[in-house]
Amino acid sequence: QVQLVESGGGLVQAGGSLRLSCAASGRIFRQYATGWFRQAPGKEREFVAVVVWSGTSTYYADSVKGRFTISRDNAKNTVYLQMNSLKPEDTAVYYCAGDTLNTLTTAEASYDFWGQGTQVTVSS
Q1: Rounded to whole angstroms, what are the CA distances from 120 to 19, 55, 87?
Q2: Is residue 117 predicted with pLDDT exceeding 90?
Q3: H, E, C per residue of 31-98
Q4: Of 112, 77, 82, 105, which Cα lies nearest the Cα of 94?
Q5: How far is the CA of 58 from the CAs of 26, 44, 85, 102, in angstroms?
Q6: What DSSP state is assigned to residue 115?
Q7: Among 8, 25, 27, 86, which is least packed by CB within 10 angstroms?
Q8: Alpha-carbon distance 48 to 70, whole Å?
Q9: Of the candidates 97, 89, 95, the residue with the CA atom closest to the CA atom of residue 121
Q10: What is the average per-residue pLDDT within 33-41?
Q11: pLDDT (0 to 100) of residue 30
């Protein structure tokens, strides 16, 4: 079973940057894609970005395209989400999740394991 732990969240002013990390531990038997999702207060969780195991393919939600970059370092078992030009509407709890089919899926139900989340707050 793979465990995921997010870190790097915090409070930042609009226009600022943060880098989130998603560290994996446990018994990793197969390659998996890693996605980032977020959930703002009173809203449903939504897809943000995904990267396949090789790191060669990524996909982003339109709302973050051009501002966020997802990447991974498999030697460190870590996936990153670099967030630039942050807006107040980016405020949410950010979760990472693993898809053992290793696809660029945006569907929550396709992900097999999840982290506990890290809070990102962007002030105006």
Answers
A1: 10, 24, 11
A2: yes
A3: CCEEEEEEECCCCCCEEEEEECCCCCCEEECCCCCCCEEEEEECCCCEEEEEECCCCHHHCEEEEEEE
A4: 82
A5: 24, 23, 20, 11
A6: -
A7: 27
A8: 10
A9: 89
A10: 97
A11: 81
